[in-house]
Amino acid sequence: MTGAQGPGRARVAILISGRGSNMAALIEAARAEGYPAQIVLIVSNEADAAGLATAEASGIETATVAHRAFADRDAFERALDERLREARADIVCLAGFMRVLTPPFVERWTGRLINIHPSLLPAYRGLHTHARALADGVRIHGCTAHFVVPELDAGPIIAQAAVSVLAGDHEASLGSRVLAQEHIVYPMALRLVASGAARLEGGRCVLSGGVGGPERALLVPPP
Ligand code: GRF
Q1: What is the DSSP letter of 67?
Q2: What are the pLDDT digits (tens) for 167-180?
Q3: I need a labelling partner for 178 at 20 to 30 A (CA). Which of 20, 69, 126, 208 fits?
Q4: Does any ligand 1 atom lie closer than 6 A to the CB of residue 20?
Q5: Residue 223 gets which letter from DSSP?
Q6: Helix, strand, coil: what percent of the chain each, to 5?
């Protein structure tokens, strides 16, 4: 990592529980020359997560830390933490990781633990975000990459992408358009964090000068 961690590419571990499409997007992005992070380890809490096979096919080290094999959450998180330290991870990305992490774990990785969530936070924390957005009749929905804090889906926002909700949208159609944006936003957020351009400071995500680009408005329906 740059900055406090010294020069070089940040070592990144990704935690998954399932499909791993965001994981695949991060792996792909990290292949690009000049990307400030390298993916060193994929950990799943489910032995049969489809994402593990994808990671192996990409030649990336994988591990299963099965939560069911541990007596309690604390023992599971200690094993997880040990595996991440063994890999000398600088940053941990949650990518569809379906276990809630407790404050001691989150605090150990503060500022170095990030997540992708399928809504425009702070709207729709938790599950079934697309169905809830549709039920509310919102015109704009999207995804958020954020630092992880102990409160679920409440961490400082690094980057977001918005999509318009179309007439006739259903959960799957809206979800797939949001997912396509997740695959753009998450690699971008990891780039910002790994390069030191996005930092967690005083409970907020601070972006270095110049990051942010021009003012832009999304109007739905368009004028
Ligand atoms: C994504 O929608 C992500 O936002 C959420 O879980 C889903 C994981 O999908 N946290 P994938 O495993 O990355 O394909």
Answers
A1: G
A2: 999 999 999 999 99
A3: 208
A4: yes
A5: -
A6: 35, 25, 45
